[in-house]
Design a protein that fits this description.
Elements (H helix, E strand, L loop, with lengths): L2 H18 L5 H25 L4 H25 L5 H23 L4 H22 L5 H24 L6 H31 L10
InterPro entries: AmiSUreI_transpt, AmiSUreI_transpt_sf
Membrane topology: Multi-pass membrane protein
Family: Belongs to the AmiS/UreI family.
């Protein structure tokens, strides 16, 4: 995904995290999802058409559709107050695709940072699947995960890329630890949420604080 696309995606995910945390209005956030979603569905069409049509060009440009379609689907679901099970099943599909991207980055490109990033994105999409199909009350938890990822996987990498230092070996090493630490944080809180959910099964709101 291009640097500008990363930055816009970071903005969308940041606003979506605030929505899930109850800090932002749903309709206003959904409008921004729709705007960026349209951009990130239209732009890959142009990039694919003007590319050399190699498998790696399609691999790189096709990923933008995953974000663009997610933003459009999420934006329309919130704006029209639609039933979210369709969005949930779509999110499950994207989470599986994300694991494929993580595998390719690890095996073919030997890129640890992008591997960890795709694992985190896959996890977030999987959480949206649980939220929209399992009807689990985990909005606050997902909001926290989305907030962290909006900066760690999108906004800050985009800003570092714009500054021309993203490929610096020291930055790569630091960001590997940042990604690993984020995954550890998610794992600890997922375990905590799971234990609380089992312990308080009778409570209609077993949310993480």
């Amino acid at each position: 995904m291009g640097v500008v696309g990363l930055l816009l995606s970071g903005a969308v995910l940041f606003l979506n995290s605030l929505l899930l945390l109850g800090k932002a209005d749903g309709k206003s956030v959904s409008v921004f999802n729709l705007i960026v979603g349209v951009i990130q569905v239209a732009s890959p069409f142009y990039l694919v058409i003007t590319s050399d049509q190699s498998n790696w060009a399609l691999y790189s440009n096709g990923v933008i559709f995953l974000f663009g379609l997610t933003f459009l689907y999420f934006g329309l679901t919130v704006y029209k107050n639609l039933e979210g099970n369709g969005l949930g099943w779509f999110s499950l599909w994207v989470s599986i695709v994300a694991l494929f991207y993580a595998f390719v980055y690890l095996i073919h490109f030997h890129d640890v940072v992008n591997t960890l990033t795709w694992i985190m994105w896959g996890y977030l999409w999987f959480l949206f699947y649980l939220l929209n199909t399992g009807k689990k009350k985990i909005e606050v938890y997902i909001g926290k995960v989305a907030l962290v990822q909006s900066w760690v996987t999108l906004t800050l990498p985009a800003m570092l890329s714009l500054a021309g230092v993203w490929s610096n070996p020291l930055v790569v090493q630091i960001w590997t630890w940042v990604c690993a630490g984020s995954i550890f944080y998610f794992g600890i809180h997922t375990l905590r949420w799971t234990l609380l959910f089992k312990k308080e099964a009778a409570d209609p709101n077993p949310l993480l604080d």
